[in-house]
Write a structure and sequence with these properties.
Keywords: Nucleotidyltransferase, Transferase. This is Sugar nucleotidyltransferase. Pfam families: NTP_transferase (PF00483). There is one protein chain. This protein is of the alpha/beta class. The protein has one domain: Spore Coat Polysaccharide Biosynthesis Protein SpsA, Chain A. A hairpin with a 2-residue loop joins strand 2 and strand 3. Helix 5 packs across helix 6. The two termini are 22 Å apart.
Length: 241
């Protein structure tokens, strides 16, 4: 099982914490955000981790070179991280799409059981939190018959089923179709969009199953307020690492 972690962005909403540090290495309770995910992946016997770096990528490489959890972490540098978005970072990982793989955003804190469920899934699935108030949701999703049919930040309350927060499992067959959608968007000069846009395009053409989860299984560190709350989430919801 390969796990792909996009981690190229500047994390500008976390300034000044990211002035000289990539977001995934910002420390929460004296440990980098990335530490919590890597320690869980080790427990689950994940064989390979691919991190797509960009801003201060050398710091991530130095961290994983000294990492006690894995001997097989591969860093791929998105040299265009300043002018592109996560769709390009994800595209750079396609060499590792021959077998089932998972995508996990680098700014997430995740409860162990949801990581385990993701890794042990047998088919393509997108994890959706359906317990949040629609007004507090970032990437809103529309669902029908337990499958994703649309995704956008500006869905109406009536259309919003829940939130996609950057956790997904892919089979090679579905990943090949996702790759085609990525190419189409990039060929349309849309290299500055999130990879979620490619998933949204694919959802118009084929069934993309979802798995629901609750808000106490994950936490995204996107801004300073999130950073201030993250320690409490770790204390109450994460296993000791």
């Amino acid at each position: 099982m390969n796990v792909i972690i996009p981690a190229a962005g500047r994390g500008t909403r976390l300034l000044p914490l990211t002035s000289n540090c990539p977001k995934c290495l910002v420390e929460i309770n004296d440990k980098p955000i990335l530490h919590y995910l890597l320690s869980d992946l080790k427990k689950l016997n994940v064989t390979k981790v691919i991190i797509v770096t960009g801003y201060r990528g050398e710091m991530i490489r130095e961290y994983v070179d000294a990492c006690e959890y894995f001997s097989d972490i591969i860093c791929i540098q998105n040299s265009q991280f300043d002018s592109t978005n996560s769709i390009v970072s994800l595209a750079l990982s396609r060499t590792f799409w021959q077998n089932d793989f998972c995508i996990i955003d680098s700014d997430l804190l995740l409860r162990f059981d949801v990581v385990e469920q993701l890794i042990k899934s047998n088919n393509t699935c997108l994890f959706i939190d359906n317990t949040k108030n629609p007004d507090s949701i970032d990437m809103k999703v529309k669902v029908k018959d337990e499958r994703l049919i649309y995704m956008d930040k500006n869905l109406s309350r009536d259309e919003t089923f829940g939130e996609f927060f950057g956790l997904s499992h892919w089979t090679p067959e579905d990943a090949a179709d996702l790759s085609n959608e990525i190419d189409q968007l990039i060929n349309q000069n849309k290299s500055d969009v999130w990879y979620e846009f490619a998933i949204r395009s694919l959802a118009q053409k084929k069934k993309l199953p979802i798995k629901t989860c609750t808000s106490d299984t994950w936490f995204e560190i996107d801004n300073i307020l999130d950073f201030q709350k993250a320690g409490s989430f770790i204390k109450h919801h994460l296993d000791k690492t």
